[in-house]
Amino acid sequence: MIDRPAVDPALFALDPEVVFLNHGSFGSCPLAVLEHQNEIRLRLELQPVKFYQRDFEPLLDEARAELGKFVGAAADDLVFVSNATEGVNTVLRSLPFKAEDELLVSSHEYNACSNAIRYAGEKRGAKVLTVDFPFPIESEEAIFEAVMAKVTDKTRLLLIDHVTSQTGLVLPIKRIIDTLEERGIDTLVDGAHAPGMIALDLDALGAAYYTGNCHKWLCAPKTAGFLHVRSDKQSAVRPLTISHGANSPRTDRSRMQIEFGWMGTRDPSAVLSVPYAIEYMGGLLPGGWPEIMERNRRLALAGRKVICETLDISLPSPDSMIGSLASIPLESPSLAKPYQSLKYQSAWQEALIERCNIELPLFTWPRHPNHIVRISAQVYNELSHYELLAKALKEFW
Question: What's the CA dihedral at 337, 343, 345, 346 to 10 degrees?
Answer without folding.
Answer: -40
